[in-house]
Amino acid sequence: MALTRKRKIFLLWWDRRKALESKRRHWIHPICKDRGALGEFNLLPQILADDEKCLEYFRMTPTTFQSLLGLCASGLKKQNTNWRKSITPKERLVVTLR
């Protein structure tokens, strides 16, 4: 009898857990579909435009990302040379956070 009671409790818990889980809207998010073709940094404007995706990607809001970039941009900036362009502070911050 105790085993059946435990089983019923478990099944009730399992059903509630499944009901509370959010349903996926996309199998692959449209932003992530283009990552292979466009590259990760080229998708940054789309990620920063979507608050939910930005929170998921960087664990911060777009305004927090911009303020953090403003605080450390001068330390991340490098000089361009004749042979190549330097990596921008925004790109460096994205790589660091990701």
Describe how the helices and strands are arranged.
Elements lengths: L1 H19 L9 H4 L1 H4 L5 H6 L1 H8 L3 H15 L12 H9 L1
Description:
The protein has 98 residues and is mostly helical. It has one domain. The chain is built from 7 helices and no strands. The longest helix is centred in the first third of the chain and has 19 residues. 5% of the residues are buried. The mean pLDDT is 83.
Short description:
With 98 residues, this protein is mainly alpha-helical. It is built from seven helices and no strands. The chain starts with a helix and ends with a helix.
List keywords for this structure.
single chain, 98 residues, mainly alpha, 7 helices, 66% helix
- Provide the succession of SSEs: HHHHHHH
Number of structurally distinct domains: 1
Mean pLDDT across the residues is 83
Low-confidence stretches: none
Q: What is the overall silhouette?
A: elongated
